[in-house]
Amino acid sequence: MDRKIMVISGGSSGIGLATALFFSERGFKVYDLSRHGGAPEEISHIPCDVSSEEQVQAAINQVLTEVGRINVCVVNAGFGIAGSLEGTKDRDAKRQLEINLHGALRLAKAALPALRETKGRLIAVSSVAGNIAIPYQSWYSASKAALQSAFLALDNEARDTGVRALTVLPGDTATSFTDNRVHNQSDPNCYGSKVRSSVGKMEADERQGKPPITVAKVIWSLAHRKNPPPQTVVGFSYKFLILLFKLFPLRLTNWIVGKLYS
User: Fold this and answer.
1) What are the residues whose beta carbons fall under 8 Å from the beta carbon of 29, sequence distance 6 or more?
2) Which of 126, 192, 202, 240 lies 20 to 30 A from 218 at CA?
């Protein structure tokens, strides 16, 4: 039997690397599309910046030239900005949306024709922050909320062609994502120490978070379930939290988030 093929963006570290290895260990040939690589040799690396339409299409073309198909595409590349919305430089905000939203959808668009041939799965790694907007992560929260909305629409667009477009929503996860976060250098003085204390608490929670293999296992399940849900929250505690936020008034839940993080 021919090996199944998985393409993943940002597969050289964190959740992406854990997912790439999990699929590879279970028989998939895995292609990592990332700028720098660094994954073990069993993962095939194709240099790719998802902000470039040309690089994304060239990477997909290379995969199809080498193996002729794609069964699973995981849209994972992304980064975070920390700081006030007001203090975020325009170029940083644009970069946040370019990678986390436009880059994700760019890869999805490029992979869809091949996924139709295999009736495959397209899975985006989003975040609980897309449902619960976090203070001083406004641009990141916005990018993930938009990604989730786009994938809900795409799932309905693609379903009749045999492709499912799904999102997985991790909460705090212990990866290098925390250390790679871009911090504002120019938050206005009116915010005082709130930015530092809020971001510090958030990053401490992340470092105590679940290992990335937890997310990889959920992605594996979504790739193989016969009728998966369009969105899956990782971990019982976060599923319960999301449920509470749906049940209670927005005024109350947003106030609680503010008390916790601002």
Assistant:
1) 3, 4, 5, 6, 44, 67
2) 202
Tell me what the pLDDT averaged over the chain comes to.
91
End-to-end CA, the chain: 54
Compute the CA torsion angle 180, 60, 108, 32 (nearest 10 deg): -30
Match domain 5-261 to its CATH number in 3.90.1150.10, 1.10.10.10, 3.40.50.720, 3.40.50.1220.
3.40.50.720
Say which residues have a Cβ less than 8 Å from residue 77's Cβ, sequence separation at least 6.
9, 10, 16, 33, 34, 50, 99, 103, 104, 107
DSSP code string of the chain: -PPPEEEEETTTSHHHHHHHHHHHHTT-EEEEEESS----TTSEEEE--TT-HHHHHHHHHHHHHHHS--SEEEE-----EES-TTTS-HHHHHHHHIIIIIIHHHHHHHHHHHHHHHT-EEEEE--GGGTSPPTT-HHHHHHHHHHHHHHHHHHHHHGGGT-EEEEEE--SB-STTTTTPEEPS---GGGTTHHHHHHHHHHHHHHTSB-HHHHHHHHHHHHH-SS--SEEESSHHHHHHHHHHHHS-HHHHHHHHHHHH-
More confident residue, 211 or 33: 33
Residue 178 is encoded by which pair of tokens? 């925390």
Per-residue pLDDT averaged across 139-154, rounded? 97
